[in-house]
Amino acid sequence: MVGQEIINLFPTPIMTTDVDVILEKKDIDTFKNLEMVRYPINNGSHSKNLNVLEPKQFSLLRSCILNHFYDYLDYLSVSKFDYDWFISSSWVNLHKPGDRSHRHFHTNSIISAIYYLDIPENSGNTIFELDEQDNRLHMPTVKLKFFEPNMYN
User: Fold this and answer.
1) For residue 50, how many C-alpha atoms fall within 13 Å in the half-sphere facing its CB?
2) Which pTM was predicted?
3) pLDDT digit string (tens) for 130-145?
4) Could you tell me if 44 and 95 are in contact, meaning their C-beta atoms sit under 8 angstroms apart?
5) Which residues share a beta bridge with 152?
6) Which range, of 86-95, 115-124, 132-141, averages the lowest pLDDT?
């Protein structure tokens, strides 16, 4: 129809939660020792492996993240049984002092999540940009106790 307009009336829900899995030092070391590739714009690195949650070693962590995802779906009143939900990819980002994540969109995802493995002192915030008008939601980056990462979505 001519003249139709969609107005984004309701906010985008963002969930924060503690992930209930305690990773052992060897598991954290596995993530930290992944082969990394520098982003083309030289602002950080990502793991060459884009499915880091696939190995059996991380099946408990993967299940825990999926359970939190299902809780999020419940909040949205969406049944986990209505669709074939899956994790399309999972990778590790590494940002050293002076690095930053560039503005980007996960166009291949309906829902995205961030799992913080390690957050150094004086790290920046996670910023979700809502639109081109510079409306931003600043989520504080939570300093985690050893073996107690968080997930943001």
Assistant:
1) 3
2) 0.74
3) 655 555 555 555 443 3
4) yes
5) 16, 114
6) 132-141
